[in-house]
């Protein structure tokens, strides 16, 4: 595995390998067993959007692996003033051992990988959020033991989270159902993969999608960069909420996951959020372990 650009690029074996390594790194950290796999290596972290979890988990994760993380805000880089990504990629490849980037266009991440000569990790684009979904899969396996026979459900915007969850869920063998408004469906490439793969359903009805689910995901109605559409989206997503009525349609032991940040009263009720807080914050913790696994695989 050279880069982590999107879930579509990973084989099932690569995903399971990453999850196994993440479990091992989590175990070692809990037992104070050092794991300096990236001693002397430097990771550049380019952020063109805000972040709490991604920034802090990559930064501390790199330190725990013996490496050095460099926070690079696009406000300070020449990339923010229009220096082409092709040039940025070739320059940074001379200094760093890897780059994590959070940005808008997926093409920018693909171009960094194409023009640079070091590993590139996607820390979220408008198209996908593979690091988050690896942590999500890790959490599901931790709680359920395996993916065998499980149904994953996603309610809401067909955004970066939906795109990555559909691909990741299907690749590890879960059934995946999604409920979203017609105007907010997932990316066509993802839908093409899902239709070809089988085990996938898409509907307008949250209750139908949630029937018999073992894990329910949701995400914000307006993602970063879509703040101007917030009011229009509140109308479009009315009813696409994870609440007690929805959970009553799911399996009794159904987990609830949210990548965070969450908007209580919009995509999820405060009651459901708090009732499932342990699972949700375990999911947030697992960002650290899953990303350390990614860094070790691509930079080790
Ligand atoms: N889930 C997630 O990526 O969170 P941040 O935006 O805080 O990094
Ligand atoms: N869909 C959200 C995820 C945040 C982690 C966004 O892109 O803002």
What does this structure look like?
Helices cover 45% and strands 14% of the residues. It has a five-stranded parallel beta sheet. A four-stranded parallel beta sheet has the order 2-1-3-4, with helices on both faces. Strand 3, helix 4 and strand 4 form a beta-alpha-beta unit. The model has no long low-confidence stretch (mean pLDDT 98). The protein is of the alpha/beta class. The structure holds phosphoric acid mono(formamide)ester and norvaline. Norvaline (NVA) is lined by residues 124, 159-161, 219-220, 223-224, 259.
Helical residues, percent: 40-55%
Ligands bound to this protein structure = phosphoric acid mono(formamide)ester, norvaline
Strand order, largest beta sheet: 7-6-5-8-9
Compute the number of helices.
Answer: 12
The average pLDDT is 98
- How many DSSP E strands? 9
Q: Gap between N and C termini, in Å?
A: 11 Å
Q: Give a quick account of the main beta sheet: strands, pairing sense, barrel closure.
A: 5 strands, parallel
What ranges have pLDDT less than 50 throughout 5 or more consecutive residues? none
> Order of helices and strands, N to C?
HEHEHEHEHEHEHEHEHHEHH
Characterize the overall form: globular
The percent range for strand residues is 5-15%
Cα-atom radius of gyration:
19 Å
């Amino acid at each position: 595995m050279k880069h982590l650009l999107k879930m579509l690029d990973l084989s099932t074996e690569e995903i399971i390998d990453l999850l196994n390594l993440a479990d091992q790194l989590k175990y070692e950290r809990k037992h104070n067993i050092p794991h300096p796999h990236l001693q002397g290596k430097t990771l550049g972290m380019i952020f063109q959007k805000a972040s709490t979890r991604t920034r802090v988990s990559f930064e501390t994760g790199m330190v725990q692996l013996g490496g050095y993380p460099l926070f690079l805000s696009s406000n300070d880089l020449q990339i923010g003033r229009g220096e082409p990504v092709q040039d940025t990629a070739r320059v940074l490849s001379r200094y760093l051992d890897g780059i994590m980037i959070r940005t808008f266009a997926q093409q920018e991440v693909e171009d960094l990988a194409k023009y640079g000569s070091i590993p590139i990790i996607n820390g979220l684009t408008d198209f996908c959020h593979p690091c988050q979904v690896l942590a999500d899969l890790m959490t599901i396996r931790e709680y359920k033991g395996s993916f065998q026979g499980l149904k994953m459900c996603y309610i809401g915007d067909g955004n970066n989270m939906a795109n990555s969850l559909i691909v990741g869920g299907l690749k590890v063998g879960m059934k995946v159902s999604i409920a979203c408004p017609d105007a907010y469906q997932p990316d066509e490439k993802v839908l093409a993969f899902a239709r070809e793969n089988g085990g996938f359903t898409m509907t307008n009805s949250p209750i139908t999608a949630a029937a018999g689910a073992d894990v329910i995901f949701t995400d914000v109605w307006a993602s970063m960069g879509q703040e101007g559409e917030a009011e229009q989206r509140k109308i479009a997503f009315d009813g696409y909420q994870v609440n007690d009525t929805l959970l009553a349609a799911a399996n009794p032991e159904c987990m609830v996951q949210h990548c965070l940040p969450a908007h209580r009263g919009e995509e999820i009720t405060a009651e459901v959020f708090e009732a499932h807080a342990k699972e949700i914050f375990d999911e947030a913790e697992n960002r650290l372990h899953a990303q350390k696994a990614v860094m070790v695989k691509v930079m080790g």
